[in-house]
Specification:
Layout (H helix, E strand, L loop, with lengths): L1 E5 L3 H12 L7 E5 L2 H11 L3 E4 L8 H10 L5 E6 L4 H9 L5 E3 L4 H12 L2 H9 L10 E2 L3 H9 L6 E6 L11 E8 L5 E7 L1 H11 L4 H10 L4 H13 L5 E2 L4 E11 L4 H7 L6 E8 L3 E9 L3
Parallel strand pairs: 1-2, 1-3, 3-4, 4-5
Antiparallel strand pairs: 6-10, 7-12, 8-9, 8-11, 9-13, 10-11, 12-13
Helix pairs in contact: 2-3, 8-9, 8-10
């Protein structure tokens, strides 16, 4: 992932870069700029995935940079790391598309909490679910049985996992962020089902895959931040269970199209979560030696 750090203080550039390096991602690239004007030139040629920008800078401010990025339709995400505290100005930045605002002075934890959802695909995950790609069909998805999920999940975890089917209810956004697996018909982008792991299920299940310390999982839950390793571990579990999903119309199994971190509620996810009957299954996951979390499996069809 490519990061552009924009601040007229060289010391702050170093602090932000050091904080990003502590996230544990080894394949990141970094560039710096001293003001919005230089940052815009870099963004045109280099196309950073994320710009971390100060607000008050000479020649071109951060908000002016955001305005020009929007005008030029450049694809880079932008977040502010700033001492600006005016509620009206910060609201303006968010309305213009700023991904986050981290106020100075900040801790590494503040920075990580803001940046991790972007690193882990939260924006892409939300966009994928917002797209109306569901297939119109008379027949729906055959959702797996509880026993099938139980067998598949326990085949890959180091600790025993007990699944208990629960009554269907709207997703509890107090347990964000979620990890969401998106399942599609093989060879297409037609989303047919999603699997949602809440914060606790993500951290405990991700830890149980490789027998990681429970203390680290509890720390991640307390911080409401899912580390890279746990995200990837849950991705492995989501891939394993993909063979359990069957599309009746095409007569084929589904594949795991992708998995993402979902950091905030949005309308499409909320609408999907209100499905019931044979289009939805909910489970409590009790992971031996770790704790409990919730998993929801939802069919997507019109």
């Amino acid at each position: 992932m490519k990061f552009l750090i924009v601040d007229d203080s060289r010391a702050m550039q170093v602090i932000v870069k050091r904080g990003l390096e502590q996230l544990g991602y080894s394949d990141n690239e970094y560039k710096t700029a001293n003001n919005g004007k230089d940052a815009l030139n870099i963004a045109k040629d280099w196309t950073p995935d994320l710009i971390l920008c100060d607000w008050h800078m000479p020649e071109m401010t951060g908000i002016q940079l955001l305005q020009l990025l929007n005008k030029l339709e450049l694809p880079s995400n932008i977040g502010f790391v700033t001492s600006e505290t005016s509620e009206s100005r910060l609201k303006e930045a968010k309305e213009m598309g700023a991904c986050f605002i981290v106020n100075k002075p900040f801790t590494d934890e503040d920075l990580h909490k803001a940046v991790l959802p972007i690193l882990q695909g939260a924006i892409e995950g939300e966009d994928a679910l917002k797209q109306d790609t569901a297939v119109t069909c008379d027949k729906g998805i055959t959702l797996p049985t509880a026993a099938a999920f139980d067998k598949a999940i326990n085949a890959v975890t180091s600790s025993s996992v007990k699944l208990t089917e629960k009554t269907t209810e709207p997703l509890n956004y107090e347990h964000l962020p979620f990890i969401t697996g998106i399942y599609a018909i093989s060879g297409t982008s037609s989303i047919r089902s999603i699997c949602v792991l809440d914060l606790e299920a993500s951290c405990f299940l991700g830890s149980a895959l490789h027998n990681l310390p429970v203390e680290d999982a509890l720390d991640s839950i307390q911080k409401k931040a899912i580390p890279k390793q746990l995200l990837e571990n849950c991705g492995m579990v989501l891939k394993v269970i993909s063979v359990l999903f069957f599309d009746q119309k095409s007569g084929t199994d589904l594949k795991l199209e992708n998995f993402h971190l979902i950091a905030k509620p949005f309308d499409k996810l909320d609408a999907l979560s209100r499905k019931g009957g044979n289009q939805r299954m909910d489970f409590e996951l009790c992971i031996d030696g770790y704790g409990k979390g919730r998993m929801s499996v939802i069919a997507v069809n019109r």
